[in-house]
Structure formats: structure tokens, C-alpha cells
Amino acid sequence: MAYQGFAQEYLGMPAVTRAYTTACVLTTAAVQLEFITPFQLYFNPDLIFRKFQIWRLITNFLFFGPLGFSFFFNMIFLYRYCRMLEEGSFRGRTADFVFMFLFGGFLMTLFGLFASLFFLGQAFTIMLVYVWSRRNPYIRMNFFGLLNFQAPFLPWVLMGFSLLLGNSIIIDLLGIAVGHIYYFLEDVFPNQPGGKKLLLTPNFL
């Protein structure tokens, strides 16, 4: 029964959320089973452009570290907010959702060229959280029963929690910055006097 319930829940996930979370879990499992190592996955511009290891442009978004609290924490937030976006403001707009993935990934990769960042999956998760939070500004949130706040503060609360765990906040700030750029170009600027929609989903999507 538990297996059937899990299978039903898994198959009920929207396509993009299911594909991304599955890729992240399988990548982590492959590392845990020592089929591959993180050294084959991390973002390295030299290996990408000189050795043509193009897969690193994708795999650095799929690995969240070894199994542990940090991994499960990231997976929960990735699954939850990716799904809520896809089933909410992107319902029936799968191509637009994929384009947001590509746009966000492209900006993060550009930043990664100039900074020593090896894995960008956490930044990508924060971007998804940021966009969701700005599109749902009146939802009340509760963080581990300790804090109550409005949804737009959620990315900053997560960054503070990451800081308490001793992690660098550069990744979180990158996710917030890219999320804000997307939100501004997609939701704010087109509604300004003289503004227009600049992010146009390509026809091939």
C-alpha cells in the first residue's frame, strides 16, 4: 500500500517538477553508490570550454551534497515550491516554466564564470522560492514553529538559517538576485508605464 501511495504521488507530480527532482535524487544516489564522483559533476569553466565537458553545465544544478540533513532540506523545498509554481502561476504554461529554468540557469552560469562556485542547485532552489513568494505576498508562513512572517520574507529567512548552519550565503544571495531579476522582468516591468514584456518564451519550447 505504501508503495502504491508513493507511486501515485510521484506520477501525480507535474512534469517539470517530477523531471528535475528525479534527476537530483538519481544524481545523489549515483554519487552515494560511487558510480560517479562530485568531481565529475561540478561547475568548472576550464573543463567545460577547453575539454568540452558540456554536461557540467547541467550536473552542477543536480547535486546537493551527500545524503544528510542539508540534502533532504533542499529536496523538500525544491519539490514543494517547484510544484506550487508549476501548479499555480504556471498552470497550463509548461513552456514558460521551462523557459524560467533556462533563464535562471543561464544567469547563474554567467555569475559562476566569475566566482568560485561549484554547485548551483541551492541557488536555483532559492530562485524558485523567491519567485513563488513574490507572487503570493499575502500568505502567512511558519518556520519550524519559531517564526511567523509573510511569504516574501521566506528567501531571507532561509538565507539566515543557512548562515546559522555555517554555510556561505553567496549561493543564497545569487538565487535571490536571479529570482528578483526574473520577477521584475516578468511581473513588474511589463506593467509599468512604457514597459513591455521582455522575456518571450521561444517557439521551440
Automatic annotation (TrEMBL):
Pfam families: DER1. Its main location: endoplasmic reticulum. It is a multi-pass membrane protein. One of its GO terms (biological process) is ERAD pathway. Keywords: Endoplasmic reticulum, Membrane, Transmembrane, Transmembrane helix. Coiled coil: none annotated. GO terms for cellular component: endoplasmic reticulum membrane. InterPro entries: DER1, Rhomboid-like_sf. It is found in: Endoplasmic reticulum membrane. It comes from the Eukaryota. The chain crosses the membrane at residues 20-42, 54-79, 99-132, 153-183. Signal peptide: none annotated. Belongs to the derlin family. PANTHER family: DER1-LIKE PROTEIN, DERLIN. Functional component of endoplasmic reticulum-associated degradation (ERAD) for misfolded lumenal proteins. May act by forming a channel that allows the retrotranslocation of misfolded proteins into the cytosol where they are ubiquitinated and degraded by the proteasome. This is Derlin. The lineage of its organism: Eukaryota, Metazoa, Chordata, Craniata, Vertebrata.
